[in-house]
């Protein structure tokens, strides 16, 4: 259920690596990879972002070269990436950050004077040159479309799963509706629910995830970088925390701010659709406040031109709110055998999901011919 990057990648994995013969991918939008897969910073993490969560940082460090290897056509490397540490209110010092990077094996070195000069020295303790990349979600979508067709996966667009229940023959009954109001029912031994913010929005016998979730409406501002910041990706941390990252799908930069990017939040609850909340949200931009605060640390950003904002739902595990960790959610629903729920907070988390699937004992390809896969990010 869902046709984002995770959904496509898992469906392709089931076909290529596990021998599933009939896979159905269900996506509520009119095209693949149009929601959270597109509306984000487009950052391929290398661990720097998580100095307070060693496990998340190390997993990103391990996964980045794999992602570059497997999706080279979608990875943008031709920019200079800087991480700067704020002098005040930062939860890590420059020395602590440098030591942390050494511990996870991430490349780091002091930035040259011309790059340091971009920052206000009385607010920034140190500036580091690091190795971190961006991805183009439109190229990932092209890969997904081609591979899904090659694997014979049946893709249903503008279709939404509304119910997952036990079937009469130890299978799962999946009810879905199309945009025109028509209804369809499929039976399958397996359902892979990776609908990101919609994980718990099903009726029937679906029990919901044991892990508690939190939703945020977020704003990612798309900016035309001024000449001084072209070819750069910048993150200031760990407290004031903002990022200006290349957004390859549009040839622009995203601007995000820890204080102004999240507009509102609430705890996940069945029957309260995050997507409905987003649809009815006013979407008044906070870009002026972002730019004003970022400009104190990085004056050149005051010359950037605002283009538009991407509003989306961001979903995180409540247990990791305090340490910024981003582990995957991977749950097997014992009350509904054959049903899995999957959520990942970052594009490189896909390898953690595939490792979990590698350890699952699925039946032979012949028995699994009627399998339905619905997955997303």
Automatic annotation (TrEMBL):
Checking Gene3D superfamilies in the record gives: D-Amino Acid Oxidase, subunit A, domain 2 (3.30.9.10), FAD/NAD(P)-binding domain (3.50.50.60)
Q: Does the keyword Oxidoreductase apply?
A: yes
Q: Does the keyword Cell membrane apply?
A: no
Q: Which InterPro entries match?
A: FAD-dep_OxRdtase (IPR006076), FAD/NAD-bd_sf (IPR036188)
Q: Which UniProt keywords apply?
A: Oxidoreductase
Which Pfam families does its entry note?
Answer: DAO
Q: Which residues form the FAD dependent oxidoreductase domain?
A: 2-304
Extract one GO molecular function annotation from the record: oxidoreductase activity
* Protein name from the UniProt record: FAD dependent oxidoreductase domain-containing protein
**What organism is this sequence from?**
Achromobacter animicus
What are the top taxonomic ranks of the organism? Bacteria, Pseudomonadati, Pseudomonadota, Betaproteobacteria, Burkholderiales
């Amino acid at each position: 259920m869902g046709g984002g990057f995770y959904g496509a990648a898992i469906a392709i994995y089931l076909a290529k690596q596990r021998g599933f013969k009939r896979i159905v991918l269900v996506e509520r939008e009119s095209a693949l990879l149009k929601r959270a897969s597109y509306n984000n910073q487009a950052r391929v993490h290398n661990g720097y972002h998580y100095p307070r969560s060693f496990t998340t940082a190390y997993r990103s460090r391990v996964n980045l070269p794999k992602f570059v290897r497997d999706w080279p056509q979608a990875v943008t490397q031709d920019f200079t990436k800087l991480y700067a540490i704020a002098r005040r209110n930062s939860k890590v010092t420059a020395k602590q950050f440098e030591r942390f990077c050494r511990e996870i094996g991430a490349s780091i070195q002091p930035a040259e004077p011309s790059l340091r000069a971009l920052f206000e020295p009385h607010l920034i303790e140190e500036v580091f040159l690091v190795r971190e990349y961006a991805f183009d979600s439109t190229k990932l979508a092209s890969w997904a479309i081609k591979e899904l067709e090659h694997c014979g996966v049946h893709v249903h667009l503008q279709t939404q799963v509304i119910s997952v229940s036990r079937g009469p023959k130890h299978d799962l009954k999946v009810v879905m509706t199309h945009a025109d109001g028509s209804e369809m029912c499929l039976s399958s031994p397996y359902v892979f629910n990776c609908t990101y913010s919609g994980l718990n929005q099903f009726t029937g016998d679906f029990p919901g995830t044991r892990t508690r979730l939190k939703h945020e409406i977020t704003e990612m501002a798309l900016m035309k970088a001024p000449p001084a910041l072209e070819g750069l990706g910048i993150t200031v941390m760990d407290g004031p925390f903002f990022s200006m990252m290349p957004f390859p799908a549009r040839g622009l930069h995203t601007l995000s701010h820890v204080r102004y990017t999240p507009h509102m939040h609430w705890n996940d609850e069945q029957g309260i659709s995050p997507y409905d909340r987003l649809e009815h949200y006013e979407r008044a931009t906070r870009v002026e406040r972002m730019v004003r605060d970022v400009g104190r640390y990085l004056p050149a950003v005051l010359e950037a031109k605002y283009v538009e904002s991407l509003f989306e739902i961001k979903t995180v595990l409540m247990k990791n709110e305090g340490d910024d960790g981003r582990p995957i959610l991977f749950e097997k629903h014992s009350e509904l055998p054959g049903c899995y729920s999957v959520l990942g907070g970052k594009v490189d988390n896909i390898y953690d999901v595939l490792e979990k699937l590698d350890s699952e004992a699925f039946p032979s390809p012949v028995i699994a011919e009627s399998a339905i896969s619905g997955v997303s990010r």
